[in-house]
Amino acid sequence: MEKFERHRGVAAPILRPNVDTDAIIPSREMKRVSKLGLGEGLFAGWRYREIGGRAVNPDFVLNQPAYANTSILLSGPNFGCGSSREHAVWALKEFGIRAVIAPGFGAIFANNCIRNGLLPLVLAEQDIAAVAAWVAQAPQDHQLLIDLPGQDVEADGVRYSFEIEAGAKRMLVEGLDAIALTQTHWPLIERFHAGRKEKYPWVY
Amino acid sequence: MAATLFEKLWREHLVESSGDGEDLIYIDRIFLHERTGSIALSSLQADGRKVFCPEHVFCVMDHIVDTYPDRTDNTTMPSGRDFIVATREGARQAGLTLFDLDDPRQGIVHVVSPEQGIVQPGLTLVCPDSHTCTQGALGALAWGIGSSEAEHALVTKTLRVKRPRTMRVRFEGQLAPGVSAKDMILHLIGRYGAAGAAGYAVEFAGSAVDGLGIEGRMTLCNMAVEFSAFTGLVAPDEKTIEYLRGRPFAPGGEHWARAEAYWRTLVSDPDAVFDRELLVDCSTLEPQVTWGTSPQHSVAITESVPSPRDDAGRPELERALAYIGLAEGARLEGTAIDCAFIGSCTNARITDLRLAAEILRGRKVAAGVRAICVPGSMRVKAQAEVEGLDKVFTDAGFEWRASGCSMCFYAGGEHFGERQRVISTTNRNFESRQGPQTRTHLASPATVAASAIAGAIADPRKHLQRSIT
Ligand code: SF4
């Protein structure tokens, strides 16, 4: 998995609450049994003029030249709520998004991010508003610098520190494969499995 | 030490506490469906990894299958066939139990699992589907995951999970006729917000929950994810035990007594402490309906579209109202509808259909309203047909379908149409969830049935009071 240590990039605001995974990638854009080819469908309902079409809606932030090469999103509370579709994360990644900054995330979405090297970064709503206002002055020049090992984001000379679970942080910074990591505990799992079989025989 | 039900379940499944915020949790059962399970199975195969304990993994076709009576692998959703074929092939190769398209047990995953007795009190169950929390209604720890997590669970029979905090929501008092579990959960989310339970596992308790049947409890737990909860839970009781007795995958023979004795221990201790407690009075609860594009946009059916609490809420309100085509202060009752939908893992079980049929019996859907009923499983459908409910629905003017998720969500196939106003027993009123630009109002089966007859959003209580007395 791609490691996440430090990242500098253009940030784009989608400052509304409850951006759900249906909005991040509509189900109709999940056309194949594949994790690839989803970037095109990212925010399809907002990004294009018509359902299923590809004519761009110039009003949508990611279509504006000022926000070209966006790699960080700024959003409102409960980003990624709704459907568990991991396609939302795969679409964001393929589009080039490395981190989403929001006051809170849908739990399944946040987990999916961590399993795919995308950073769900929690900041207070008013801090995000301040960062977005600064970014808006000159999005290409006013880039954010995220330092995951140091747990802070730098914007306008201010360092905003953020919290992240140690396990999730390690997974991202080291780019670990969760399955391989868990498999190192195999004897423990097998013992646990055998113990449960004995205790609750009707389950097995 | 006194423990909550959630803590007991967690403790029983804790393989290892890493100390870095993530616990390694043992998983008893895994369910997959063709929409997201297909990806998990195919990428597992590509990585050369194997399923540990395939006998504990179940698969169903529900999300993108058609619900027309003569359906085949070909779907109205373009390329749907690929998902169906990949799932079937993946399940066969891995040796999983599959409820295929033509299986009489086929249906929506969260309906099939309890119906077959696959989910049981005290088990952990995961599925790459956010509404897996539905199954917490039986006292299991069940939650939705992503596809990568599903692979992890398939291969290692464990998941790394951040332990949520605990919340108890006590619903007290007796529900009025025409008010049901759907109204309870919509009201809760309307009052505390769509992120109200973020970071919590929520136990639903109190006299109103005790009074609900198992299916009503499933409706309640189904929308725990709309409340941003890690999962919803109801402690098993006599009703749970009776519900499971004799189900195909439930414990049989000499196992039953042991299982039953264990299930009875699965309650929160009287002096257990929750991180947060909420109390909802159900005695005055009215039928609820949503006016906007988030489940938190819900009010009593007698109310109007509210004004935002503060200026910060105004952009969200305006956006939602522009989408839904209503004005601030508009009355919900009496708002004309184009379609009525009874279906989904929230409200398409037999008790839901009975309730709707009670209102529809001898009546007709209003002219110009398209009304559809999609039973939650083929077994629900068969049971309804035994009871003659299908006749009630079709006589009233409803389409009567085969089971599946159908138009609960739009996958690129069938949909309700642009700017069509739908009153729906589903769980999400997100923008374009039920079709491009489709306007969804969430409500209970009773409210949907009453509205279908009226041709406008309507209060079901008039009908039910009459038919009960
Ligand atoms: S019925 Fe709707 S909410 Fe339930 S599993 Fe299917 S798509 Fe998801």
Name the descriptors.
heterodimer; A: 204 residues; alpha/beta; Aconitase, domain 4; 7-stranded mixed sheet; 8 helices; B: 469 residues; Aconitase, domain 3; 2 domains; 16 helices; 32% helix; globular; binds iron/sulfur cluster
Mean pLDDT of chain A: 96
The CATH superfamily of the largest domain in chain B is known as Aconitase, domain 3
CATH level 3 topology of chain A:
Aconitase, domain 4
Number of helices of chain A: 8
- Please identify the oligomeric state: heterodimer
Main sheet record of chain A = 7 strands, mixed
Describe the sheet with the most strands of chain B.
5 strands, parallel
Strand-residue proportion of chain B: 15-25%
Name the CATH class of chain A: Alpha Beta
Q: Which regions of chain A have little confidence, pLDDT < 50, spanning 5+ residues?
A: none
> Helix- and strand-based class of chain A?
alpha/beta
What is the CA-CA span between the terminal residues of chain B? 49 Å
The first-level CATH class of the largest domain in chain B is given as Alpha Beta
Low-confidence stretches of chain B: none
Summarize the structure.
The complex is a heterodimer of chains A (204) and B (469). Chain A is of the alpha/beta class and 204 residues long.
